[in-house]
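Let us work through a complete example step by step.
Step 1: write down the sequence.
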Amino acid sequence: MRMPKVLYNYYERRLAKEIEPGSVPAHIGVMVDGNRRWAKQFNAATMQGHQAGADKILEFLGWCQDLGVKVVTLYMLSTDNLSRSPEELDELMNIIANTFDVLDADVNISVHAMGAPEILPDYLAARLSSLTARVPATERIHVNMAIGYGGRREIVDAVRELLQAADADGRTMAEVASTLSVDDISKFLYTRGQPDPDLVIRTSGEQRLSGFLMWQSAYSEFYFCEALWPAFRKIDFLRALRDYAGRSRRFGS
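Step 2: predict the structure and record it as tokens.
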């Protein structure tokens, strides 16, 4: 049974008041999971689920801007997702491209690509490149788009780039190995120069990372939500923030 709108609005306002500005995570990672299952609930086409999920991303970024979140990383398309049927992928890529167009029109958003653009269709890779090259007039939020992304691949790419840089500097592999540190690898991750995520949210009830930000999330807090992504509401988000604010972060201790 759905909550009457007047009660929903009251509850949302009450939750928002519980979130202290200083407790809002600076960087949130989100695994936007459940589009296909959401569509299946309504006997709708899979693409209706993907479109509803894309619409929810835009709504979610608005919530984040209102609450002062500075960085959001969205797990939109994994390398494993690229094994879906050509028909579904074509429609999904078009939805993603249209989402890029909407983001491009927002002067408050900067976008950074995470993943392997070479495995994307040429038109989508070009659109993503154009979007990431754009400098926003006033950046209120930075968005990492994980598309064609795999966590293991990111670590392999980082190590490969580190070794290539060392070779260009004339260093031997023995020299690299003798001084190699966590920070050395972090400098070559897709999110280099950015803070690690404070909070990682996954929708749809699944409780696993599926390779998302494997390196960066070592000390992140995790929040698993039963709602499918297209049905994820602002009160679900506020509950996640409230839960995060109530935790004592130990950073591995």
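Step 3: interpret the result. The first strand starts at residue 27 and ends at 31.
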